[in-house]
Amino acid sequence: MESLCVGIDTSMCLTHSEPDLHVSEDFGEYMRSRLSQSKRQDHEYLCAVIDELSKTLAEDNHPRTPVAYFAKTCISLDSLLSEDGEPRLDVVQPHVVILSLVFPKVSAGVLNRDGLALRLVLSVLRLKSATPECLISGLKCLVHLLTTVESIMGNEGSDSYSILLNFVTHSDGKVRKLASSCLRDVLLKSHGTKPWQSVSGAIAELFQNYLELAHKSEVGSTEGARGAKQVLYILSTLKECLALMSRKHIATLIEGFKMLMILRDPYITRPVIDSLYAVCLNPTSEVPVEALLEVLSLAAGLFSGHETSADAMTFTARLLKVGMTRSFSLNRDLCVVKLPSVFNGLNDIVASEHEEAIFAATDALKSLIFSCIDESLIREGVNGIRNSSLNVRKSSPTVIEKLCATVESLLDYKYHAVWDMAFQVVSAMFDKLGEESAYFMRKTLEGLSDMQDLPDEGFPYRKQLHECVGSAVGAMGPETFLSIVRLNLEASDLSEVKVWLFPILKQYTVGGRLSFFTETIFSMVETMSQKAQQLKLQGLPVASRSVDSLVYSLWALLPSFCNYPVDTVESFADLGRILCGVLQTQAETRGIICASLNILIQQNKDVVEGKVPTNDASPAIQRATARYDSQHAAANLKVLRLCAPKLLDVLTRIFHESGKDDGGSLQSAIGNLASIAEKKTVSKLLFKTLRELLEATKTAIAQDESSVSGMDVDNTADKNSSSNLRARLFDLLVSLLPGLDGQEVDTIFSSLKPAMQDPKGLIQKKAYKVLSIILKSSDGFVSKNLEELLELMHNICHVSAKRHKLDCLYFLLAHASRTDDLKERKDIVSSFLPEVILALKEVNKKTRNRAYDVLVQIGHAYADEENGGDNEKLHGYFNMVVGCLAGEKPQMISAAVKGVARLTYEFSDLIASAYNLLPSTFLLLQRKNKEITKANLGLLKVLVAKSPVEGLHANLKSMVEGLLKWPEGTKNLFKAKVRLLLEMLIKKCGTEAVKSVMPEEHMKLLTNIRKVKERKEKKYAAGSDISKSQHSIDASSKASRWNDTKIFSDFEDEYEDSDGEDMDAESHGRSKASSLLKSKASALRSKKSRNQSHLEVDESDDEPLDLMDRYKTRLALRSSELRKRKADSDEEAEFDVEGRLIIREGERTKRKEISDADLDAKSSKGSRFSGNSSRKNQKRMKTSESGYSYTGKEYASKKASGDLKKKDKLEPYAYWPLDRKMMSRRPEQRAVAVRGMSSVVKMAKKMEGKSAAEALATTKFKKFKRSGQKKSAGKKKNK
After folding, report:
1. Following DSSP, what letter does each residue of 416-484 receive, concatenated?
2. Which of 12, 345, 413, 764 pairs as cysteine with 107 (C-beta 3.0–4.6 A)?
3. How do residues 602-629 score in pLDDT, each as one tens digit?
C-alpha cells in the first residue's frame, strides 16, 4: 500500500465529476476550513483524523492531494479493521467519511487497484455496531465503486449486491432511502447486462421471501409483523427500482402485488400503485401485459362499495389511465377485454365526493375513450347491432356496447352532483364514435334531451348540457340527430317547440348534407311560413310573429349546412335555384344567404390553396376536413362556378335596388362569386357597371351645372340620388376586383381619376377606397402607375376621404422604402410624409388612428430586412419625421412631436435618437402654446415609460429641470401631467435619484408626492381582501397598447389610475396584434368603473382641491351636484294604515300630516313605524346634537306619574337619543357621550315611577339648558 501512495501519478486522480477542487490544492486544509467552526463531536473526530493524515503525508514528503489522502486513509482503515475484536467506531467512521469524499476525485484505475477499496468498504458495511452515519458514508462509497469500476460490477459484485439489498430493510429511514437510491443507480448503470439480471432476481427473491413470511405467519405473531414491515420497506424501494428491472422479475413482483391489492389496505395499496405507475410511465421498461392487466382490474374494483381516501382514488385513476394506455399499445386484444371493468371502476370514483379524485377519473375516462377505442372495436359493435336487427341471435353485448352503457349510466341521478364532469365524458364518447354514435348512443341522446326540461333551480349545468348535445350534433350529423330529437314544429302549442335546439344546431353542425336542407329544412320553412300567414289572417299577430321567428331560426341554419358539406357537387344546383328565388322575395334572409355562400366558396378555395384548419379544431371539423382534398374542392368550385352567373345577376340587381347593404354581406358575396366565376361573366358585369357609372356621372354633372348650390349639397338622404347611385356603383366595382385582370383594373383606375377630384365628399371617399383596395391587392400596380399616382395624391381631398387617402399614401411610401433610388425615395417621402403627420391632428378618431397606423407601418417597412430594409433606413425615416419639427405653424410642430412619440413607442431602437431631441423638447415647452406643450409632455411620458432605467438615469437631471421650468401663465395648466411624469420617474429611478437632481425650490412637491403615495399605500393595506384581489386583477388586466387620447389629452384620469403602468407593461413584451386590439367588454367595464369612481370625491385626503386643475374642479362640482340631487330625492317611504307601501305614479305629491287616529294605528302591534312618520314631524323629533328620538308621550298618564298600557297598542316604550359623538375619533367627545349614557343608568332608580316621556324631558331639559345658557351668553357677549 505504501507503493500505492508513492507511485501513483497525481494526474490520474481528478475525474469529470469534481471540477470544484483542484488536484494541486491541499485536501486536508480544504476540509478543515469547512469544519473548523462546527461544534459537532463527529466533525471534531474527522478534523483530528485529517490532521493525523496530513502530518503523516508531510513527514513522508507526499503531496497532500486527494489520491494521497485516499492511499493513507486506506492504509489506516485497513490496520484498524485488521485488529482483533470490534474496532472503535469513533475512529472508523471518520475514515469512511474521508473515503466517501475522496472517491469522486480519484480515477477508476486507482480505486480498482488490488481490490482494497471494495474490501474495506464491505468490511465496514458488515460491522454490526456501525452507526447510520457510518453506513451512509459506506453506501456512498459502495455505489460509487459499483457504478464507476466496471470490473467490480462484472466479477466481484454479487457479494456487494447482497450487502446492498440487506440495507433496503434497515431500521433507519435514511439508510433505507440511500440504499434504494444506490440500487436504482446500479440497475440503471448495468441495464441489459448479467449483473442487471442478478440484481433484479435478488430484489424479486427478497420480496417474495418477506411476503411469504408475512402471509404464512399467524395473525399477531412477531414474525408476521416483521415480515409485513419488511414488505413495506421493499415496496418503498420498488417505487424507484421496479421500472428498471427485467421483464421476468417485474412479472414475478406484479404477481405478488395482486395478493397485496386484495387486502385493500391503503398503506400497502399506495406504494403498489406508485410502483406500477412508474413502470407504465417509463418508456423503456419491459412491461408484462398479462400480469399488469390483472392488477389493473383489481385496482379498478377497489372502490365498489368501499370507503377509500381521496388520495387512493386519485392515484388509482391516474394509474388506470397510463396503465391501460400502455397495455393497449403492447397488446390490444388483451386490453380491450378489461376495458369494461376499468370503466366501471372509474365510474365508482366519479361518484365519490372527492373533487381531485373526480377530476382524475374524468380525465382518465376521456383519455381511455380516445386511446383505447379503435375502428375495429366500433365496427365489431356496429356489426353486432345490425345482426341483432336481422334477427340473428348474438351471445352477449359487445365491448363497445358495454362501454357506451357505462358512459350512459353517468347521466343517472346518482351522479347529479357531478353532471358537469359526466357531460365531458359523454361528449368525448360522441366525438370518438362519430357517425356510428347513432347505433350506440341513441338512448343517451334522448336522456340529454329530457334533461333540458329540468328546472333551473336544481340544474346549474345548462351550458355544459348544451355543449354535450352539440357534440352529438357534430358526431351524428344534423339529419340523424333530428331523427332522434325532433324539433316538434308541428305542435299546436308553440311552447312545446324545442327552440333551444336552434342555437346548438347552428353552432355545431358541420359536414351535413345540402340535400337535407333543401328537402327537409326548406319544407319546414314553407310549412311554418304558411302557418304564420294563417295565424295573421285569424287575427293572432303575436303568434304569427312567433312563427316568423321560427322561420328565421330555420333559415339561420343554412350557414352551418354550408360548413364543409358532403354533397356540394350533387345538391348545390337545386339549392342555388331556391336561393335565387328567396333572395328576391325575402329581404330578411339575404344576410344569411350571403354568409352561407361566402363560407362555401372560401372553404373550398382554402382547400385548393393548401390551407388547412388548425390542430385545435373540434373532432367534427377534423372529420369533415378529412373528407376534403384538392380534387374534391376543385369539383365543388366547378359546380359553384356554373351557378355563379345567375347568383351574381340576382345579387347585383338587389344591391342596386336596395341601396343598403348592412354589414357588407352583399358586397362580400359578390366578391367571392366574382373570384370563382368565369372571366367573361365578370367582364360583362364590369362593363355594365362602368356604363351605369358613366351615365350617373353625366347626370350628376348636368345637375351640378343647373344647380346654384355650392360644394357637397347633394341630397344624400335620398337613396336614388346621383351621389348615392355613384357610390353604390363604386362599391360594386370594389366587389368585382377579385375576378378582374390587370387590364380591367387599369380601366377602373381610369374611371377613378375624375371621381377623386369630384366636389362631393361621398364620391371622393368611395374613389379613394377603391384605389386603396386596388393598391393593396395588386403588388405591381404602384410601380406601373407611379407617376399618375403621385400626381393624384398631390390633390387636396375632402375631409371624409382623408382616411382612405392615408391608405393610398401608405402603399406609396412603402414602395419608396423598397426602392434603391435614393432621390426618388427622398422625393416621395418628403412630398407625402407631412400630410400623414398632419393627419395625426384630425378631429375624426378613425382618421387619426389610421394616420398613426400608417406612420408605424411605414416604419416597419423601412425596418423589414426581408424586403430590403434595415436599421439605418429606419433611423433615416425617423429623422425625416423629426425634420417636420421645423414647421412654422404650431399644428405642424405638435403633430411632428406626436409622430416622434409614436415611433419611439413602437421601435425601441429609436429611444436613443429620441433622447437627442430633449433640448429641443424643453425649448418647445417654454413656448406659450398649449397644443405644443401637450404633445411634448406626451413625448416625455413615452420616453419615461419605454426607456430602460440606465437611459433615464443618464438624462434624469435634464428631464427634471426641464419639466419644472415653466413660462408664466402656463404652469398650472399642465400641473397634473407634470406631477404624473415625476411619479413615473420616481417609480422607475427611485426617490433618492430624483431627489438628488430636484431643484431646491420644488422639494415640497417631491415631499407631497411621497406623502400621497404613502397615504394611498396605507389605505390600500387597510382595505379588504376582496378589494386587494380586485386591484390585482385590474392591474394585471390592463391593456398594453397605444392610446394617443390618453397620452396627449388635456386633463385625464391617467393621474389617478395610470402611472404609466400600461406602457411599462408594453415595454417588457408586446405583440403587434395585441397592441391594436382591445376587448369591448373590458372597455365598457373600465368606463363604467371610472364613471362610478368619479361620482364621489375622496374627501379623506388632506390635499387641498387644486382649483387650477380643471379635471379636479369639474369632478368636485359634479360630485356635489350629485349629492345634492340625492339628498333632495331622499324621501321617506309612504305606508298606509295597514303597513303596506304606497307607490304613487306620475308626479310625487306632498303627503298630508297624519292624524291622531293614524298615529294610533301606526303605534299598534305589528306596524312598521310608531309615532308620526311625516317628514315634517320627523324633523321635529330630531335633536340638534343627537339622532332620532321618541319620547312616548302618548303613553303618559294624565292622572298618575307612570305610563299606561293601551288596547291594541305596543307596551310603553321610548327612544333615548343616539349621540353621534359615540362614533367620533376624538377621545374627549366619546367620553362626553359615554357620560351621557351612564347618567341614564344612574337615574333609573331616581326616575322610577315616572313616565318615559317625563324622564326623557327631564334629562334633556338639564342637558340642553346648559347648552342654551352658553348660547345665550355667547349672543349677549357678541352684542
Report:
1. GGGHHHHHHHHHHHHHHHGGGHHHHSHHHHHHHHHHTTS-GGG---HHHHHHHHHHHHHHH-HHHHHHH
2. 12
3. 999 999 988 877 667 888 888 888 888 8
